[in-house]
Amino acid sequence: MKHKEKTNTNSTEDSLAIYLNLANTDDLFFKKKQYFNQKAFTILMNQSNDSLNRLNLFKVANRYYNMNDWRSYGETVRVLLYKSLNAQDTANTAKAYSYLGEYYGSQSISDSAFMCYFKAEKIFLRLNDTYNLAKTRLNKANLQYAENDFLGSEVTVFNALRVIKGKDANDLVYESNNLLGILNNELGEYDKALEYHNKALKSIDDEVIPSWNQSKATSFNNMGIVYQNMGMYKKAINYFNRGLEQPNLITDKVALYTMLLDNLAYSRFKNNESANVPELFYKSLKIRDSLNFMTGIIANKIHLAEYYASNGDTLKGLQFSNEALKTARSSKNDRNALIPLKQLAILEPKKAATYNKEYIHINDSLQKAERKMGEKFSRIEYETDQIIDENINLETKNRNLLFGFSAFMMLGLLLFVIKSQKAKNRELLFKQEQQKVNEEIYNLMISQQNTIETNRVKEKKRVAQELHDGVLGRMFGIRMNLDSLNKMHDGTTIEKRTNYLTELKNIEQDIREISHDLNREKSELINNFVAIVDNLLEEQKKTFHPKLVASIDRTIKWELLSNSVKINLYRIIQESLQNINKYANAKTIKIELKKNDEDLLLIISDDGNGFDINKSKKGIGLQNIQSRTSECNGTVDIKSKKGDGTMITISVPLEIKQILT
């Protein structure tokens, strides 16, 4: 069964790898790639939330990003953020926030995008991940640039460059300098713009920045735009041509290719070069139209309108201007409508007031929106910093509370240990005192038994002496008197006398034997310990109804056994008999004390109710038996079963030479 589960797991992992590879294959149609990526996503959603699972989810997100499937990309990134937060995976949480910022940016939800970038930035800063910190700041800067917050964007770029200064991050250095060039171009600082674009070109490293990124073509295009804005069209044409000369441009970055075509045609037109100008415009427009590059289409049509208007074809100029305005209005980006409106106001003087009014309205709205967005960006930074400061303060308070609580717990633990140690010491002292008391009790019992034995021996001696000296003497006198009467020859008298004499002799012999037995018993008296145990067993027989069968090995030299062991064995027998009398309802009890090699065995068994050993281990009776056996360095084996009686076997080690004969 386990082998089958392992096979299924391997099969799932193989399928996941296959789906991820297929979703990243350029030769497949979009729908097919989307399908395979969704299959991979479904597999990952059914797996546990571990680091490998999150890594593969990032792969799925990257594939959706490359497909421009923003809806699926956003869904995947939200799942990633949830899983990373749930797993307390700080690094992947920051990365997920960065990805989510890209998603909101693609949907033109700039404030949410900025918030996500800002959260990612703070985490990367805390992790000291300089590369991702700089990359996130660049994303923020691009967002600020898109919202025309040029100065704010510039500050953010410098913050990005500051953290990667001296680091091996040529790709980020390129992006930073390229964006600074674009920003300074927008601000009219053309010399600075060219300076930054040249820095960007110098930082291009083919090993770090892949060729398909077309960084050189991008920089050439941007430098051409700067020269175009400066009115230096010949230099602009040179840079646009250099950009178009880059290998694989149309396959790697078709949008950049169409931009270069359009910019080249416009610079040629402005430089009064007529060769291939319309063809370049139309070539660019055709590609942009087929790929629905909205901003590029508007730029193309504005340039064509200006081109035809300058050549006296006002109708075509108006046609392209109106088309540009229409496209701009459908693009949901009001900024795209400004240039077509300005152009139409020039081409149609009669409607100039209408166009100018709309232009002013849109421009004012955009400026307000830009100021509002800039303020929102600042507020997001301030409020997030405030929240972070509050969290830091809260963390500090929590940490202090934790330290205080830990100190209190340590103090409590220390007091508990001290108290426990004192209790253990008291328990040890109590055990020692108890041991002394047990010794004293046993010695008293021995003393009492000795007194009883001594008195019994004295009494036996007295009786023996009395029998020997008193009774026997008198009987001997009677015998002598009777013997003297034997001289009488009366037949009947002689017979009677003979019978009396014989009987007296027999009595004399019996009394003599009794006397000798009484004197001899002293040497055969058993050890006092055995006598004490016998007394206990006799008391049991008299008081309780179960039949008691006892067997004590009387060849053991009990006097050489330590009093501590003897009193503990006595108490164990006493405790066992009490338990049997209370609970067992037994008919027969067997007690056996014997030697077995180097051990002394005490076996106590009964045929009573029995009990469940596991449930009764904590009983005071059993604990006492186990404790006393431990004091003798012995072992206890208890066997019992409900309805099957109980057997307790206690083994105590002995030194054979000293104890056993």
UniProtKB/TrEMBL annotation:
<keyword id="KW-1133">Transmembrane helix</keyword>
<dbReference type="GO" id="GO:0000155">
    <property type="term" value="F:phosphorelay sensor kinase activity"/>
</dbReference>
<keyword id="KW-0418">Kinase</keyword>
<keyword id="KW-0808">Transferase</keyword>
<keyword id="KW-0902">Two-component regulatory system</keyword>
<keyword id="KW-0802">TPR repeat</keyword>
<keyword id="KW-0472">Membrane</keyword>
<dbReference type="GO" id="GO:0005524">
    <property type="term" value="F:ATP binding"/>
</dbReference>
<dbReference type="InterPro" id="IPR005467">
    <property type="entry name" value="His_kinase_dom"/>
</dbReference>
<dbReference type="InterPro" id="IPR011712">
    <property type="entry name" value="Sig_transdc_His_kin_sub3_dim/P"/>
</dbReference>
<dbReference type="Pfam" id="PF07730">
    <property type="entry name" value="HisKA_3"/>
</dbReference>
<dbReference type="GO" id="GO:0046983">
    <property type="term" value="F:protein dimerization activity"/>
</dbReference>
<dbReference type="InterPro" id="IPR003594">
    <property type="entry name" value="HATPase_dom"/>
</dbReference>
<keyword id="KW-0547">Nucleotide-binding</keyword>
<keyword id="KW-0812">Transmembrane</keyword>
<keyword id="KW-0597">Phosphoprotein</keyword>
<feature type="domain" description="Histidine kinase">
    <location>
        <begin position="569"/>
        <end position="656"/>
    </location>
</feature>
<dbReference type="GO" id="GO:0016020">
    <property type="term" value="C:membrane"/>
</dbReference>
<protein>
    <recommendedName>
        <fullName>histidine kinase</fullName>
        <ecNumber>2.7.13.3</ecNumber>
    </recommendedName>
</protein>
<dbReference type="InterPro" id="IPR011990">
    <property type="entry name" value="TPR-like_helical_dom_sf"/>
</dbReference>
<keyword id="KW-0067">ATP-binding</keyword>
<dbReference type="InterPro" id="IPR050482">
    <property type="entry name" value="Sensor_HK_TwoCompSys"/>
</dbReference>
<feature type="repeat" description="TPR">
    <location>
        <begin position="217"/>
        <end position="249"/>
    </location>
</feature>
<dbReference type="InterPro" id="IPR019734">
    <property type="entry name" value="TPR_rpt"/>
</dbReference>
<dbReference type="InterPro" id="IPR036890">
    <property type="entry name" value="HATPase_C_sf"/>
</dbReference>
<dbReference type="Pfam" id="PF02518">
    <property type="entry name" value="HATPase_c"/>
</dbReference>
<feature type="transmembrane region" description="Helical">
    <location>
        <begin position="401"/>
        <end position="418"/>
    </location>
</feature>
<feature type="repeat" description="TPR">
    <location>
        <begin position="174"/>
        <end position="207"/>
    </location>
</feature>
<dbReference type="Pfam" id="PF13424">
    <property type="entry name" value="TPR_12"/>
</dbReference>
